[in-house]
Amino acid sequence: MKLMNKYIRKSLVLAVIAAAGFAMISCEDEPDKYEVADGVPTVRYIRSPKASASDSLIVAATTGSSICLVGDNLRSIYELYFNDKKAVLNNSFMTDHTMIVDVPQTIPTLVSNKIYMVTQSKDTVTYDFEVTVPAPTLTAMSCEYAPVGSEVSIIGNYFVDDPNVPLLVTLPGNVEVKDFTSISQSSISFVMPECSEEGTIDVTTIYGTTTSTFHYLDTRGMLFDFDGVTGLGNHGWHARDIISDATSISGKFVQLGDGTSAMTEDGAWDDTHFAFEYWCGSWDTPQNVTSGDGIALHNLVDFTDYVDMSLKFEMYVPSTNPWSAGAMQICFEGYDKVTISGYAIEGYNGTIAGPNAKAFNGEDGLGDYGRALYRPWTTNGSFDTGNSWITVTIPLKNFNYTRQGAMATEVPSSPGDFASLTFFVVGGGVNGTECTPIIKLDNIRAVPNK
């Protein structure tokens, strides 16, 4: 036994020595490991990081752009500032003679038009360089149908409210916003003034003016306003409530859920309360898909550039009935997937399907057909719109999920695939918590992204 213990102790000692030796060898095997250099840096010039423009020297750049410093001993740079804003250094793009770095997105508070290079020993070297701020960018409006007197926000970047040149927001009809509630670099909030005209919005700062791609009171590409376009919208197996009430934003809307019907944690099938469908066509022979109730949606709205389009709609989820389970599945379908009758269509020689949910469900060999899955409750476990309406935007290129949230094997790939439309809160592949949601939808439209 003593001999065995001695052997074990000796083996452990040898193992420790071997491990230590391996660790030292491992360190020695990293000759290219990045280390901050001593001394101070020298910048000879700054150029574009693109090889095609590497001979173009630059003395200024906009926030968020990439630049390349060229000089000597640049690995001695421990911290880098543009004016008073610290840059993020990536040592994968740092050598003794070049450094690629992004100009910080944040607008400088104190403008000196200098780069400050700080070494590990706190020595500072400066280099003259101007950071320019672009004109504002406008990404979205919290509600494109915001009623008068409501608070609304514009989301984007570079919203600068300079004391000498105040930020200006101009609505359609040359209506100027006066009552701002907050302004930050990425958001503007204000009380909606009287404005009844549809159109774009301008935001002007000291750095320029930008016109929105989105429209206030947008009617472009309108599919369902539930007040006249394509009838009331119901056109399929089920009739959904088309109503108006004290919450109405622009007339009637369609409502999913009645406030008492349960949505199970896995979003079980309930087409009685949580589905809205519009299947094109008629009971005529041949079917009428070119006009009236049952018109194919691609005959109502031009989907030629569907790749650069988005589906938009206004949505209201009251705080009394939040949404915490099930995915809103939004599915466009062509004649080969569904029509109201399945009868012939003049001028169309392809497959014509009758009323069914097979493509939606991926049944009978129809595969996994793409649709959008919208489930905002997954961020915090529950979702409501704070008793107000919001605008939801979903790019048509994102209609690429199966019913259970996997990537689809077939997606809408031509204008003809946008003939019918189904909204159905069901499944989605992510469990939530049982709820009794109310989801109101209005102004369903397909609009260009730019």
Secondary-structure map:
Elements: H1 2-28, E1 42-47, E2 60-62, E3 66-72, E4 77-82, E5 85-86, E6 98-102, E7 114-119, E8 124-128, E9 130-132, E10 137-141, E11 151-157, E12 168-171, E13 175-176, E14 180-183, E15 187-191, E16 202-205, E17 208-211, E18 222-224, E19 242-243, E20 253-256, E21 275-278, H2 297-300, E22 309-316, E23 328-333, H3 358-361, E24 372-374, E25 390-395, E26 420-425, E27 439-448
Parallel strand pairs: 2-9
Antiparallel strand pairs: 1-3, 3-6, 4-5, 4-7, 7-8, 10-11, 11-15, 12-13, 12-16, 14-15, 16-17, 18-27, 19-20, 20-27, 21-26, 22-25, 22-27, 23-24, 23-26
Number of helices: 3
> What is the CATH topology assignment of the largest domain?
Jelly Rolls
Number of structural domains: 3
Determine and state the CATH class of the largest domain.
Answer: Mainly Beta
- Average pLDDT over all residues: 91
Strand % is 25-35%
For the sheet with most strands, the description reads: 6 strands, antiparallel
Number-wise, the strands total 27
Separation of the first and last Cα atoms: 83 Å
- Which architecture name of the largest domain does CATH use? Sandwich
The chain-level structural class is mainly beta
Give the radius of gyration. Answer: 30 Å
> What is the overall silhouette?
elongated
Percent of residues in helices: under 10%
* Poorly predicted runs: 1-28
The run of helices and strands is: HEEEEEEEEEEEEEEEEEEEEEHEEHEEEE
